[in-house]
Every structure is written in C-alpha cells, then in structure tokens.
Write a structure and sequence with these properties.
Elements lengths: L2 H14 L10 E6 L19 E5 L2 E3 L3 E5 L6 E6 L7 E11 L8 E7 L5 E4 L7 E8 L12 E8 L16 E4 L10 E8 L3 E7 L7 E7 L12 E7 L6 E15 L30 H33 L2
Antiparallel strand pairs: 1-16, 2-5, 3-4, 4-16, 5-15, 6-12, 6-16, 7-9, 7-15, 9-10, 10-11, 12-13, 13-14
Helix pairs in contact: 1-2
Length: about 325
C-alpha cells in the first residue's frame, strides 16, 4: 500500500484548509502625492515649477539636480512647496548629495515641515524660531564634544525657541544620530522620514550600501513631543559659511499612507490627487469576500482530497489482489 502518497495528500489538504489570520489582511498602502513630489527635469515648459518655489542661491540643472548651494562660501538656497502637506500619515523619501573638493566643509542642509515657508534665514539657510519640524543634516562641528559629524538631528520648533547654533542644536534636539560617510558617499544618499499622526515619527538613512537602510531614530508620540502642524509646508534649505560644500537635491517623493485591514478603515486627510476618498478623508478599501465562504471552500477541498486519495488507494489494492491470480 502506498501510504506515503496518502499521507502527503492529507498534509497538502490540511495546508489548504488552514484559516487565514486576521492580521494577514492588514497592510500599509500608499498614494503618491504629486503636489509634493519633485523629480528631474524639475521645471515645466515655462521654466517654472507648478508645485514648488525656489530662491536664494539655488540653481537647477534639469537633467541632474537642484543645487541649494555651490561649493563656495557664504551661500544660502531654498525650495518650498506652494501648498501645505495636509495628509495625517505620510512618508517622504529624499535623495540628495553632499560633496565638495575640500577636506574642511560646511555647513549642511535642512528638511522642513513648518508653518513658515520660503523665508531665508540663519538656520541652514531658513528662518529661526520656526513652528514645526526641522531635520538638520549638519556637516560642520561647532561645539559638541563626543558626537561624530556629519550629524543628523530633529528639532520640534514652537515658534519661540531659537536653534542653538553654537552648540549644534544640543539643547533643542528631539532625536538624532551620527552618520559618518554621509558626505561624498560612494552610493546614492537618501533619507526616508515616516510619520503616523499621534503614533510615531521615524527616520532612516541610506549612505553605506545601496538598498540598505540604517535607522537614525524611531520616536513614539506618547513619549516624545511630536507636534507637526496640521498645515505645514515641505521645504529644503542649505547654507555655507567660510567653509562650503555642494548641497544637491536629486529627488523628493512623498506618499500619503493609510492602513487597509478588516477592522481598520485607516486613512489620512487627503490631498488633491488622493482618489477614492469619502467625505471624511478616509480611504475606503474594496470589500473582500467573506472569510467564512473561503473557509468553507477550503474545507470542501480538504474532504475532496481525502475521498480522492481513498478511492485511488482502493483501486490500487483491488488491482494488486487481482494480479495474484
């Protein structure tokens, strides 16, 4: 008797009949936000950007990059979105390059999500006493012992507190990490900032190996002061002093994030290109087939496999007995 065959069929039928766990039906989905995405050639046919303003010493090379500052002293440049980022859950992926010829270099650049926009100033080329979130890619060490530079840090501005440039923002740091090798990196350098309202804020960096991300920080909203304004503009700015670097932006990609699951409607406030939303701004996923119907179907397959296996075994046994005579 071929019991191994019969056992294999039973195992296969058992796998087919295993119920699907509820958590397998939940996942994060994204909707690209064209209003906050910037890729080559960066400009429209009239040499303007529909969704971004830029100023200061910013230069645009349509086939390669947006250069916030060149490798020359005393430069400031910026770009800012024209419309606010109103999604409650989002992810920003930024590709950039910090490079220059000198061994001494500075100062760095910043990623902004603030109420203020397009205002040149002393904090990495943008305004001080900002309200919102600033992520600083600081390449020049002023006075911060025990910290390796370049250093990437987050600051949550309240509109009244100044950035402590003399101490590289130590007193107002929300979170940060050292990123040696970020400047003149051998691979494309990227930053990925992910935010879930009232839940978390995290930053990942790519600068050591391509397609390999290093976590810089991961903050829980319950334990940290994460207060990004409901109406915040996305911006980038850079600054050089006596020392300098090229600060290039290659691309900005922004996604609206929402959770799809059986028990979670998910969602975030919409943007102009987020389709399939209800009046409340919640993305409505398509209804899936009843899990009970699917379970019944797999159960029938299970018993069908058992009957088929038993029938085959009976035929084989009958033929074996007949062959003896």
């Amino acid at each position: 008797m071929r019991f191994p065959i019969f056992s294999s069929l039973l195992c296969l039928a058992g796998l087919l009949s295993a119920p699907v766990k509820a958590e397998d039906e939940s996942y994060i989905k994204n909707i690209p936000l064209r209003t906050h995405t910037l890729t080559s050639p960066y400009l429209d046919s009239d040499f303007q950007s529909r969704w971004f303003d830029f100023g200061g010493d910013t230069l645009i090379r349509a086939d390669k990059y947006i250069r916030l500052t060149a490798d020359r002293p005393s430069q400031q440049g910026w770009i800012f979105s024209r419309v606010p980022l109103t999604a409650t859950n989002w992810q920003i992926e930024l590709e950039f390059e910090i490079h220059g010829a000198g061994t001494l270099h500075g100062d760095g650049f910043a990623l902004w999500l603030t109420k203020q926009r397009a205002t040149q100033g002393p904090v990495f080329g943008s305004t001080d006493k900002f309200e919102g979130l600033g992520i600083f890619f600081d390449t020049y060490k002023n006075n911060r012992p025990g910290v390796t530079f370049p250093y990437v840090m987050a600051m949550m501005g309240d509109g009244e507190t100044s950035y402590d440039q003399a101490h590289d923002g130590k007193g107002t740091e929300l979170a940060g990490c050292s990123a040696r090798g970020l400047r003149n990196a051998p691979v494309p350098t990227k930053a990925r900032l992910t935010y879930f309202q009232d839940k978390s804020l995290s930053l990942e960096l790519q600068y050591k190996t391509e397609d390999s991300w290093v976590e810089c920080f991961n903050l829980n909203a319950e334990d940290s002061n994460i207060a990004i304004p409901s109406v915040a503009y996305l911006g980038l700015s850079a600054e050089t002093g006596e020392l300098s670097d090229n600060h290039d932006i290659v691309s900005i990609k922004v996604d609206n994030l929402y959770t799809v699951g059986r028990n979670n409607g998910g969602g975030s406030r919409g943007s102009d290109n987020s389709r399939g939303r209800g009046r409340s701004g919640t993305v409505k996923p398509k209804k899936k087939k009843s899990s009970w119907t699917w379970f019944l179907f797999k159960t029938l397959m299970f018993f069908g496999a058992i009957v088929g296996a038993y029938f085959g075994w009976t035929v084989y046994r009958t033929k074996s007995r007949s062959s003896r005579f």
